[in-house]
């Protein structure tokens, strides 16, 4: 195999990864919902925020470490956002990510919809010394979600992340044109042997993915669901997908341990504000009572600085990790 050219920026990785991804996977990873306004805005809103640099502040020694959750320090404020189906990017999929998380001492949030089971990811995390959080989707059959919570606990995850922006699946046009379905050699590894294991084939103007979500995922997700989850676990519960201060206050009054400001990388509701634009409202409402992170459109070190300068505890990145996986 020819060695990759010098890869310096995330854009270099994005471009280079394209050659290793089949169209179906590339479109699934890159897509936003509908006309992809929010997808673009997440990135461009960072460009409208400019830095006013300080001077004569010694940078001979710099410490970028931060307390991610009480008592849990990380060396720099970047975590790995949950992304589904990582084996479409590279053979080892989520196992490569967990190794990367350990090497960079970053926290990996595992998707409910991984192509490696949470047990196998947990085993690898112990070997390489990575910290895992687990992201939850709530199934119509609550027993499926409850079982997943307990399996994640046994696998050693340190927090649960409830994604609250996906009661239904956003319409991603490319996935609909491609009739996106998970390639037949891959599976929802957390549901092996269950009816939730396979995605139907696409057809009738719908992706197989859309059919799977409408048949399995509970669209009645609300604050009661969060309370129900809290009765099932003692782990910290973080909500991902809050975009407003009033919802952040509701999250606080429902006892959450942290908030990730997110619009799902522009993949759910189009015509939304960018996450970096939503961040100040959420931070004001929370007023430092719990940690607030953000994700969406982070594409360089200055973007991280901007989010942290506004008051975020740190950022999570989604697509850039997939580009890295597909480049390896
Ligand atoms: C291909 C792909 C799959 C994703 N899968 C999940 C998922 O399983 N669970 C989840 O909560 N978010 C998922 N997300 C959303 C990410 O966690 C994150 O919010 C988003 O990617 C951040 O935007 P960025 O890609 O610009 O960094 C996914 C995003 C992408 C691009
Ligand atoms: C209930 C919606 C599930 C979406 C799962 C994967 C994902 O988050 C994404 O493709 O985006």
From TrEMBL:
> What residues make up the catalytic site?
264
Transcription regulation listed as a keyword: no
* Lineage top rank: taxon: Eukaryota
Q: Which InterPro entries match?
A: Aldolase_TIM, Alpha-hydoxy_acid_DH_FMN, FMN-dep_DH, FMN_HAD, FMN_hydac_DH_AS
Q: Which residues bind glyoxylate?
A: 28, 137, 172, 264, 267
Catalyzes what?
2-hydroxyoctanoate + O2 = 2-oxooctanoate + H2O2; a (2S)-2-hydroxycarboxylate + O2 = a 2-oxocarboxylate + H2O2
**What are the entry keywords?**
Flavoprotein, FMN, Oxidoreductase
One GO molecular function term?
Answer: (S)-2-hydroxy-acid oxidase activity
Cellular-component GO terms for this entry: peroxisomal matrix
Keyword Flavoprotein among UniProt keywords: yes
Q: Report the cofactors.
A: FMN
Ranges for the FMN hydroxy acid dehydrogenase domain? 2-328
**Any one Pfam family match given in the protein's UniProt record, by short name:** FMN_dh
Under the heading PROSITE patterns, the entry gives: FMN_HYDROXY_ACID_DH_1 (PS00557), FMN_HYDROXY_ACID_DH_2 (PS51349)
A biological process term (GO) from this entry: fatty acid alpha-oxidation
Check the record and name the SUPFAM superfamilies matching this protein. FMN-linked oxidoreductases (SSF51395)
Q: Which residues bind FMN?
A: 82-84, 111, 135, 163, 240, 262, 295-299, 318-319
> Family, per the entry?
Belongs to the FMN-dependent alpha-hydroxy acid dehydrogenase family.
Q: What is this protein called?
A: FMN hydroxy acid dehydrogenase domain-containing protein
Q: Which organism is it from?
A: Caenorhabditis brenneri
